[in-house]
Amino acid sequence: MAVTLKDIANKVGVSVTTVSRALAGYSDVSPTTRERIKAAATELGYFPNITAQRLRKQRTDTLGFIMPTFGARFSDPFFSEFIAGIGTEAADHEYDLLVSTHAPDSEGEANAYRRAARGGWADGLIVVRTREDDLRLRLLCEKNFPFVAFGRTDDELDFPYVDEDSEAGMEMLVQHFIDLGHRHIGFIAPPQGLMFGRYRLRGYYQTMAKNNLTVLPEWVMEGDMTQHGGAHVVKDLLTLDPRPTAVICSNDLMAIGAANRIQQQGLMVGKDIALGGFDDIPLAAFVTPPLTTLHQPIYEIGRRSCAMLINILNGRVPQNEHILLTPSLVVRESSGPMLYERR
Amino acid sequence: MAVTLKDIANKVGVSVTTVSRALAGYSDVSPTTRERIKAAATELGYFPNITAQRLRKQRTDTLGFIMPTFGARFSDPFFSEFIAGIGTEAADHEYDLLVSTHAPDSEGEANAYRRAARGGWADGLIVVRTREDDLRLRLLCEKNFPFVAFGRTDDELDFPYVDEDSEAGMEMLVQHFIDLGHRHIGFIAPPQGLMFGRYRLRGYYQTMAKNNLTVLPEWVMEGDMTQHGGAHVVKDLLTLDPRPTAVICSNDLMAIGAANRIQQQGLMVGKDIALGGFDDIPLAAFVTPPLTTLHQPIYEIGRRSCAMLINILNGRVPQNEHILLTPSLVVRESSGPMLYERR
DNA sequence: TTGAAAGCGCTAACAC
DNA sequence: GTGTTAGCGCTTTCAA
Questions:
Q1: β-strands A328-330, A293-295: how paired?
Q2: How far does the CA of A33 sit from the C1' of C14, in Å?
Q3: CATH fold for the domain made of A5-48
Q4: pLDDT at position A343
Q5: CATH architecture, domain defined by A62-164+299-325
Q6: Residue B163: what are its φ and ψ, rounded to 5°?
Q7: If we measure between CA atoms, which residue out of A132, A134, A136 comes closest to residue A111?
Q8: Contact call for A67 and B83, based on CB within 8 A
Q9: Does the pLDDT at position B74 exceed 80?
């Protein structure tokens, strides 16, 4: 089938070894044979057998990404962007990217990580959406398997990561609403267990406290990070008396869902009620009204985590580097004008 | 490092061959040795070396997906959903999924396909967004490399595909608007070269013609499939005199962008102007006003294309199967009421 | 029922 | 400079 070193060796009349060395660019091959070998290689259309190289080198030159997905209509734009980021960086360094999809915390996911951590599947892993007491991270740390996470944890585990400072981000957003005159600010939190959700929630509480504002327990609801969740949960917030004048959602998808429901109830977002999100997904600027949110450069984060992983794999970097980025506040119409200026 | 067959063989005191056969479940191993071997394998924590198996079997048990991406803020929700679909199906059949990202029609993409078509990278490929005169398909057909496409082509190439009948879908949508009383219907087409865009455009023209409606050239604009594109292009449509009473966008992302721009200009979607999209991305139901569109089951399409590919790889299916699905019309508020019922 | 031997395609230590 | 040899870990004749 495919052309092998042997074919070239036969054709040129040298040994397989020589061919291998010539093609690999070793200096101990005479210029003339090297040329003849190269010529033969191009003529025959030789390309190295990746699998054989891998077996020999005991490395796969492949990165793994086990993507947490949820059921059939799963379609979080985060992942397209993130994959584009890691994929591009990986390709730039001649790494392949293996993607595997599993529901978070499922048995399938656990197996996938166990399999990966055994080695031989990929040389390193990119892990996203770190969780409290994250078994994935625990496993990888324990087995000493190379990985970089997008996200931190609170526990004793130490590992390299890139993260967004959700606490600082949320502080900007909450402060923005407070500065606009809001005092009753509802919050739609992510499901328990996600680290970034925890930071976002914490940022909310802290900023409220810092401004001497009390938070009533019923102001804080938990959503499932999807547009459905946002729509579903916000309606309870709307029935409160007094009704919050602003609602912050811990991601844009939920904010968009919430906006939809709010407007369905005849209220105007950015007028009757202020709304904020987190992520700045590309659509955030194009919904009606455009969404005030915190911008995270997902593609860049993907690239950087991947670059970090590749550095680690090549022993080029102090282990356990930590990068913490600060999101930037993007104010759009959904936050509305100063509260007392409303008509 | 890792436990190999040899380790087990040593431990049990048999040959590597026997261990291999015992573990592979061949019948010609005595029950007792088989048990001893199995016990030793579990005890030592044996797992086969995938690379070695691949080299030996001359197949990778891996599927490739070369994802067409565009720059840094690329984030089309289509891809998360599609990858979730193919990934799940692949995993169910114990295939791995290799993902590579490249700009469409770029040199990098061409290289990726050439590399894949040489073999050894993946056993088969999933191709999406077929193009007119698609070099990728031409290459794969020529090299006889197994693949399944999501999308068809017009030319002589015959290959297995799953596709959505965009023409039929668009007909439903256009007819829907016509039935509502619209006569001046603008259309935002995808960039030249994409097959599905062609079908969608054709569906529009044909349905207009079928209803004896003429289409003025200035009603048809070309957008780039993103929310930006939709927003950008729709404004020219709005300046026409008479202004179209309805605008159809060839995907939801553009429709959402268009809706944004329309409302920015003080017009109300679903009232002053009707709007339709295509795809039914999960957010379509949650924008304001909710978008009338055509539903495509992307996840399912991913699963089915992947299943088809796996069948082909295992020689289980008549080559070049064609599946054509019909999208379903989802009417939401953006199409508005009957035209003459408007206030 | 078991084992020896060959080989998938490549690389590298070591001779010549 | 070049070839011999060995081996990465596995599977599969073939012979015993």
A1: antiparallel
A2: 22
A3: 434 Repressor (Amino-terminal Domain) (1.10.260)
A4: 42
A5: 3-Layer(aba) Sandwich (3.40)
A6: -145, 160
A7: A136
A8: yes
A9: no
- pLDDT tens digit string along B159-180? 999 999 999 999 999 999 999 9
B91·A75 Cβ contact <8 A: no
Helix (H) or strand (E) holding A322: strand A322-325
Å separating the CA of residue B38 from the C1' of nucleotide C13 = 36
Residues in contact with B272: Cβ distance below 8 Å, sequence separation at least 6, in sequence order: B262
B contacts of A108 (beta carbons < 8 Å): 91
pLDDT of residue B75: 73
Q: Do B102 and A119 touch (CB under 8 A)?
A: no
- Topology of the domain comprising B166-296+329-335: Rossmann fold (3.40.50)
Chain A residues near residue B302 by CB distance under 8 angstroms: none
Closest by Cβ to B299, choosing from A72, A108, A227: A72
Provide the Cα torsion B297, B303, B305, B308; round to 10°.
Answer: -140
CA distances from B230 to A5, A286, B225, B249 (A): 53, 10, 7, 8
Cα(B230)–Cα(A283) distance, rounded to whole angstroms?
12
- Determine which helix (DSSP H) or strand (DSSP E) holds A141, and give its type and residue range: helix A135-143
CB-based contact, A342 to chain B, within 8 Å:
no
Name the segment(s) of chain A with CATH classification 3.40.50.2300.
62-164+299-325, 166-296+329-335
What span, in angstroms and rounded, lies between the C-alpha atoms of A250 and A210? 20
Chain B hits for A56, CB-CB cut-off 8 Å, are none
Q: Where are the alpha helices (DSSP H) in B93-221?
A: 107-117, 135-143, 166-179, 195-210
Mean pLDDT in residue range B197-220: 96
Q: Which amino acid is at B1?
A: M
Residues whose CB is less than 8 angstroms from the CB of residue A53 and which lie 6 or more positions away in sequence, other chains included: none
Q: Shortest CA distance to A252 belongs to which of A76, A72, A71? A: A76
* Angstrom distances, CA of residue A14 to CA of A35, A42, B307: 13, 16, 46
Residue of A74, A256, A263 lying closest to B80 (CB–CB):
A74
The Cα A4–Cα A44 span in angstroms is: 9
